[in-house]
Write a structure and sequence with these properties.
The longest helix is centred in the N-terminal third of the chain and has 21 residues, at 32-52. The protein starts with 5 loop residues before the first helix and ends in a 10-residue tail after the last helix. α2 (13-26) packs antiparallel against α3. The chain is of the alpha/beta class and 228 residues long. The radius of gyration is 21 Å and the shape is globular. It has helices spanning 6-9, 13-26, 32-52, 70-83, 101-105, 123-126, 129-148, 160-165, 171-178, 196-201, 214-218; strands at residues 60-64, 88-92, 113-117, 154-158, 186-190, 204-207.
Length: 228
């Protein structure tokens, strides 16, 4: 049986028209006039969508999946928020045994950024479930402080999805906490295995797909500047 592609599953009429216009341009060699006509129509469709969009909303953002880049993508949003002068908080749930290079890099924004690495490393390193549970509970308590604090525009909960997957936290508890955030606050939750209830609640969900990985495929260890 043929599986549906993301384009086929998309039922938004505007997206479908934009996809059709792109396909028509890519599958032929239109004259300059035809190309301009199609791109003008694409601009009209996009402008109409933007005109209907609401101006601002605090988002719940989930980066999940087995592929690399979940935290890296979230840190890009952190950097963007800092550039706009916003206050940002980062709470790391699993990482923490290492001194992250990101923490040193972001030290330039010490007046805007709160950074708390509250884990003790990967679960196979700690080998102490009770201690891991205590650390996750403490990290969630700290996270709630930032979620509820209106002074912080963006809160990154790094690897919290792992804590949920391992049962260190309950998804109902996290959803209840997210419901307490101010309307204009953004919260990013990273880590593989995001639970369905969190995905359903989120406004933006990105799944990183693993295609190739140097450690799995070539036995290359984690490298400074790439993994940490």
């Amino acid at each position: 049986m043929k599986s549906d592609t993301p384009e086929e599953l998309n039922t938004d009429p505007a997206d479908q028209e934009i996809s059709r216009l792109i396909d028509e341009v890519m599958s032929s060699s239109p004259t300059d006039d035809k190309y301009r006509q199609k791109m003008q129509r694409r601009k009209e469709v996009q402008d109409q969508r933007i005109a209907k969009a609401i101006s601002e909303k605090g988002l719940i953002i989930v980066n999940t999946g087995h592929g690399k880049g979940k935290t890296t993508a979230a840190l890009g949003m952190v950097l963007r928020s800092l550039g706009h002068g916003h206050k940002v908080a980062i709470v790391q749930f699993i990482k923490g045994a290492w001194e992250p290079a990101e923490k040193r890099a972001f030290s330039h924004w010490e007046n805007q950024l709160e950074f708390h690495a509250m884990g003790e490393g990967f679960t196979w390193e700690t080998q102490d479930r009770d201690r891991d549970l205590d650390k996750a509970a403490a990290a969630w308590e700290k996270s709630l402080e930032f979620i509820q604090n209106p002074d912080f525009k963006l809160v990154l909960l790094d690897e919290i999805n792992i804590a949920l997957k391992l049962g260190y936290l309950q998804v109902e508890e996290v959803l209840a906490g997210l419901a307490q955030k101010p309307l204009d606050k953004h919260v990013i939750l990273t880590g593989r295995g995001a639970p369905p209830a969190l995905i359903e609640k989120a406004d933006l969900v990105t799944e990183m797909t693993l295609v190739k990985h140097p450690f799995r495929d070539q036995g290359v260890k984690a490298q400074a500047g790439i993994e940490y």
